[in-house]
């Protein structure tokens, strides 16, 4: 006798439901035996959603009271040179054009861009440094506005990573793993804390434009993916030109009523599919359609900065009215946080300084210096800094030796994973803290190293989560942002 013919939909429902039955069963062998005794198709006929999905879709909630309820993450794509900005190394002035000692390099892996060089000549920073604030933090002349707020900032000068090339390094920094496909920090935050505004996404991504772009690294949705978390926790990318969200406005001839009726019809079809199959992505699709409809009203209000006072706009600098600029993007971030967005990720290219450090760094710092200062001051004035964590940094640092030609007026720097500088402000981070120390070459860490895993564990702690217990079951394992290797919360970074 031939087996019954099933439609592809019935077959998919049968397979998904069986798989979920086995995942949820506490006694696998008993479940398998039970399944073999039941009539074929029993599980395919269920009308209930997949077991456990309701728990997954809702925010899991913090393990303890969070210091930070929002995050604004400013990622400088390409790797800022720490020794030209925050890691002052005056001894290097006496080493100009001398070779980096092998005792310092110690066989470190090099990129293909400098591995063939016959020499590794030391390139001291061309820029002057001064101490600022009660903390006495040394800051480059390129960052005069930032220098005024060092006592609000928490500096980590001993960050390190194993990744030496951009793609794995930025993926590592964003997701805790060098291989794409894992949830990013923004998705973990959304999953853990949930939404504060039903009319805006929980996690928003902005890709800012530099004023003088020379070299850019690829930035794409892989970096703000929810990975194995449900799709609703992925970042929503806002565009810098035209409509902030594609197709957010109704096309000509389509009224709001027609759009509403269309969505109602789609929702009914998706709901039927959900009841038949129990696929969580179908529920995500329903929620996203509804969010898109509500955003038709909320996004135009969000992006209209005409209500901002001239004094507020002046805080961010002369590029603030230019859509897509870094200044405009960080103002947007403040407006989003003000409206309940949990996590705002801003990427800015132009920090890949293999050549022309002087030119690229000067324009890059001009793009970010006053806007970062304005963001901190604006949040502080509105009472939002205490529960908003600002993160600034790249995916790795740069070498003290020059890539390519060297002169007293200009030089290049290659990738350097062994040490780099990041900073935080607000959200329970310790103001005025300077943590970690590197050697005279800004090449190796000599005190208080902070690995990416430690940094992630510390950020999760500020958000109210124990990184060891903040997990999601995937492929039979309790997956977590900090992975399986040791990670620690750096207590000295906490206020």
Describe the structure.
Residues 1-57 have low confidence and may be disordered. With 495 residues, the protein is α/β, with parallel strands linked by helices. The strands form five sheets. Strands 1, 4, 5, 6, 7, 8, 11, 12 and 15 form a nine-stranded mixed beta sheet that branches. Strands 2-3 form a two-stranded antiparallel ribbon. A two-stranded antiparallel ribbon has the order 9-10. The radius of gyration is 25 Å and the shape is globular. The chain has two domains: 8-46, no CATH class; 70-247 and 302-493, 3-Layer(aba) Sandwich (Alkaline Phosphatase, subunit A), CATH 3.40.720. It has helices at 8-24, 28-37, 53-57, 102-105, 144-147, 166-175, 185-193, 256-277, 280-303, 310-316, 326-338, 357-381, 452-462, and strands at residues 70-76, 129-132, 137-140, 153-160, 203-208, 236-238, 343-348, 388-393, 397-402, 413-416, 420-425, 433-435, 437-438, 445-447, 450-451, 472-474, 477-479. The relative contact order is 0.20. The protein contains 13 helices and 17 strands.
